[in-house]
Write a structure and sequence with these properties.
This protein is an alpha/beta fold. The protein is about 25% helix and about 25% strand. It has helices at about 45-50, 100, 145, 150-160, 180-190, 205-210, 225-230, 245-250, 270-275, 290-305, 315-325, and strands at about 5-10, 15-20, 30-40, 65-70, 85, 125-130, 135, 170-175, 195-200, 215, 235-240, 255-260, 280-285, 310-315, 330-335. The strands form three sheets. Strands 3, 4, 5, 6, 7, 14 and 15 form a seven-stranded mixed sheet that branches. Strands 10-9-8-11-12-13 form a six-stranded parallel sheet, sandwiched between helices. Helix 6 (about 205-210) links the parallel strand 9 (about 195-200) and strand 10 (about 215). The protein binds zinc ion (ZN) (2 copies). The site of one zinc ion (ZN) has 8 residues, from helix 2.
Length: about 350
């Protein structure tokens, strides 16, 4: 029986185990992927800590997956063995419900499929994925380069391109971490006047390197006042997970501006008066579906947006996860399956 290695979570809050399993066969509507690289995302803690209802254990996390189609189940047109594909958080959708047919497949009414949560993900040499979850990967991105774009990338790219900001308008990115270092690059490449906001003067050179036109150090200046000095922001993409940091920038929105939340703070205070009197809004954005991932990868290949990664072999998944959770990684952690 051909076997594969996986890094699994045996039960909620337990340590990772590196185990051998039989290589699974893809059922109808699904494919088997020979995984080449898988990003390690903060949302993997959903599986590690048991934060999602009814997770079945042991479970293999990982929703920033890049690999090649290795076997194809019945009734899967359009994909071929050997083709390189990516799978993200969105783990598939039915394709026939009203939401899917209406272009809102992320809100599928029939199934809730989350890669590495409701079914096994990419901390593994092989995984099974529904065909509806697959994105095509451009040749000129390596698998390790592409992996973080499947969650951190799509989250910031898709939020920004749907934010309503136009070329030359001011877009601020709050936080320059795993999400933010990609958000700044995307904002600059999309033609926005890009403002990076973070804590500390030491981040200024990084912000410039990522393409930011302005840097605001929120430790030494009021970020809302600094944004207003630049004319106010059409969009503030909030990638930080601090509600206090989000509160501090709200006053920097221009009229009709949007505070666009993709990082998850524990709670958030909103001052309603500026929302009403300036027709401002606060909204969230779901990362996106497989086509959004594919377009994120294509845009990144086209424009040179790249994730900065620390790479670990699968056998060191526990260490890689710990490194990601420490918040010290610069900036994404990626597992590779070789060796
Ligand atoms: Zn993620
Ligand atoms: Zn559906």
């Amino acid at each position: 029986m051909p076997m594969m290695r996986v890094a699994q979570v045996p039960r909620p809050k337990a340590s990772f185990e590196l185990v051998e399993r039989e290589i699974p066969q893809p059922p109808a509507g699904q494919v088997r992927i020979k995984v080449q690289a898988c990003g390690v995302c903060h949302s993997d803690s959903v599986t590690k800590e048991g934060l999602f209802p009814n997770i079945e254990y042991p479970r293999v996390p990982g929703h920033e997956v890049i690999g090649t189609v290795d076997a194809i189940g019945g009734g899967v047109p359009g994909w071929t063995v050997g083709q390189r594909v990516g799978v993200g958080w969105h783990g598939g959708n039915c394709g026939y419900c009203d939401a899917c047919r209406g272009g809102d497949a992320f809100d599928c009414e029939t199934v809730t499929l989350v890669t590495g949560v409701t079914h096994d993900g990419g901390y593994a040499e092989y995984m099974i994925a529904p065909a509806t979850a697959l994105a095509r990967v451009p040749d000129d991105l390596s698998s390790a380069e592409a992996a973080p774009l499947m969650c951190a990338g799509i989250t910031t790219f898709n939020a920004l391109r749907n934010s309503g900001a136009g070329p030359g308008e001011t877009v601020a990115v709050l936080g320059i971490g795993g999400l933010g270092h990609l958000g700044v690059q995307f904002a600059a490449k999309m033609g926005f006047k890009t403002v990076a906001i973070a804590r500390g003067q030491d981040k200024a050179p990084l912000a410039e390197q990522l393409g930011a036109h302005h840097y605001i150090d929120s430790q030494t200046e009021d970020p809302a006042a600094a944004l207003q000095k630049l004319g106010g922001a059409k969009v503030i993409l909030a990638t930080a997970t601090s509600g206090a940091a989000m509160n501090a920038v709200q006053g920097g929105l221009a009229a009709r501006g949007t505070l666009l939340i993709v990082g998850v703070p524990e709670s958030l205070d909103i001052n309603p008066a500026p929302l009403i009197f300036g027709s401002r809004s606060v909204k969230g954005w779901y990362s996106g579906t497989s086509i959004d991932s594919q377009q994120t990868l294509a845009f990144s290949a086209l424009t040179g947006v790249r994730s900065m990664n620390e790479v670990y072999p699968l056998a060191r998944a526990a260490e890689a996860y710990g490194r990601m959770m420490s918040g010290e990684a610069r900036f994404r952690v990626v597992l590779t399956m070789e060796g």
